[in-house]
Amino acid sequence: MKEILIGILAALFFAVTFVLNHSMELEGGSWLWSSSLRYFFMLPFLIAIVAIRGKVGFRILSSEMKEHPGAWLIWSFVGFVLFYAPLTFAAAFGPGWLVSGTWQFTIVAGVLLAPLFITTIAGKNIRAKIPLISLGISGIILFGILLIQIPQAQSVSIDSLLLGILPVVVAAFAYPLGNRKMMELCGGRVDPFQRVLGMTIASLPAWILLAIYALFTVGLPSASQVYQSLLVAVSSGVIATILFFIATDRVRHDQGKLAAVEATQSTEVLFAMVGEMILLSVPLPQPIALIGLAVIIIGMLLHSYHTVLMNKRLQTANEKG
């Protein structure tokens, strides 16, 4: 239950991404700068956090990255670059509600990725199975998200829908895949703070290339875009990412609980919608969208109930054993 609450808190800070990315696009800022600046700004904060926690953190992280440099580069690219670059690109073609709503497909994506991972139990390699109950509950949340999209989609062109949705679907699979593969690779030897720093460092070559391309194609970013990118970096890149990684790291051995924690990202829709209403004067959602919000909340409560129930069953089994 604590992990779900941490996930919801992370979703609150994650929602800043969708609101401010939409704001930057309305002001004419390029998605190339929106994506790369976030990770440039994240780096010094993460270095400071790991340094405060002790010098040994850098030694452990350095050792892990030197042992598997290729894996760190690949899964950091998947988990960070293929996650955030498509999100900022989509913001250039679709409103914040469309991007944040489509992003919730990651709830189902995370559940479907389970068979890609193998757990060793008593010396035997066992391939994880798709947790059907978690998949069903995630489907309820996804249905609520679709209800939110219906009234808005009627006023958006097909091109905007495709360019605003397809990149986000890529991001929806990339983020949980990169996160889970890095947890599997690290095996608990590095904490979430070190892991976020390591993944940020490993993804820097891609962000540097994007920034160079942006410099020669759209010029330097505006002062407003730099400031808003800094806010996104602190709120979403540092605070939200670390909170989410802490929550998922605690339940990394249980696919059902992991799916429940990843499902907390659905609350980003609520936070993003309220944020756009307050900051960008987006009107109050239509009744069908409000019904969708209620369905999402019900789905989250079901996920929480299922997690608590599974914990009780596990505790009972351990006591009997």
UniProtKB/TrEMBL annotation:
Transmembrane segment boundaries: 31-52, 72-97, 103-123, 130-150, 156-175, 196-220, 226-247, 259-282, 288-305
UniProt keyword list: Membrane, Transmembrane, Transmembrane helix
Recorded superkingdom: Bacteria
Cited Pfam families: EmrE (PF13536)
Listed name of the protein: Multidrug resistance efflux transporter family protein
Organism this protein belongs to: Solibacillus silvestris (strain StLB046) (Bacillus silvestris)
Taxonomic classification: Bacteria, Bacillati, Bacillota, Bacilli, Bacillales
